[in-house]
Fold:
Amino acid sequence: MQVTGTVLTTRRVDAYHALTVVAPGIAERFRPGHFVGVAVGGAQTSMLTRRAFFVHDVKPDYGGTVEFVFSVSGPGTAWLADRRARDTLDLVGPLGRPFPLPRDPVTCVLVGAEHGSATLFTVADALQRRGCRVDFVLGAASADRVFGALRARRMGETTTLTTEDGSLGMRGRVTDVLPGVIADVRADAVYACGPMPMLHGVTTVAVEFDIPVQVAVEERMACGIGVCMTCVLPVIGDDGVTRMVRSCVEGPVFRGERVRFDDVGTIPFDALGAPGGGTRNAG
Ligand SMILES: Cc1cc2nc3c(=O)[nH]c(=O)nc-3n(C[C@H](O)[C@H](O)[C@H](O)COP(=O)(O)OP(=O)(O)OC[C@H]3O[C@@H](n4cnc5c(N)ncnc54)[C@H](O)[C@@H]3O)c2cc1C
Ligand code: FES
Structure:
């Protein structure tokens, strides 16, 4: 649904900005892994496409609020960083398919990198409500870009932090420590959100341990509602056939081992409908 919401609070969290917006309809329908499409630039803007942000938190205040977390990476996020309390924002959401949750109380490792970590706390909350054990592995380039370390320490059974420059936790990447964490906690499942190469690495580790992995991808998006095909990526279906699927509506959450990470940004020749073979191969 589309909501014109009032900005309730703005805050800085190290390298990130967090905006809380009153958006009752979106908060009410939200499930972990959903994202919102935010109009940027105001009425006369040339920035026509909405910008996608994972929902970090929802609260019941004022009928329902949603909070999202971002860093400035271009004109749209720069405009958002200038918003103040009582400004209005045009939001569409909740968008996408959320994370599937296990039926049984299993042990889950939640892996986040950069702002992707912000997506994991509602997942952790939902898992814990089902009796699951939750362990966190969070990482980033440097300490100021590791989002949510304190909250992870409060919520998680264990929390392992990594930074590439060694300024917080262990020096390296989340994928360097993940095998040890999975083995130590005897994890049954992995949930991950972060840049595509990190999701690829996390999936490789989970597959080595033969445990399921759910990844929330951030493929470039334009419409966010399934119309424009900007966000497609090659994903293997239940029937073993690769299809170019829209990450905004069929995702952004996928089973990691189904995403053909090496082929993201291309149409593999054996994908259904691909020029020169896909349709014929699938027929
Ligand atoms: C499902 C999803 C969830 C996301 N969640 C977050 C989040 O929680 N926090 C956060 O900081 N960022 C998030 N992003 C990335 C965020 O959407 C982009 O950083 C933002 O759109 C950049 O806009 P810009 O105008 O500042 O930069 P520009 O680079 O000028 O953006 C121009 C265009 O490219 C698209 N674009 C640029 N970078 C990305 C990207 N990495 N992914 C997708 N589209 C992009 C924009 O939508 C826009 O149409 C998410 C992306 C997706 C797809
Ligand atoms: S962003 Fe337009 S179809 Fe996904």
Q: What stands out?
A: The chain has seven helices and 15 strands. Residues 279-283 have pLDDT under 50 and may be disordered. The pocket of FE2/S2 (inorganic) cluster (ligand 2) is lined by residues 221-224, 226-231, 246, 248 (CB under 6 Å). The longest strand covers residues 2-13.
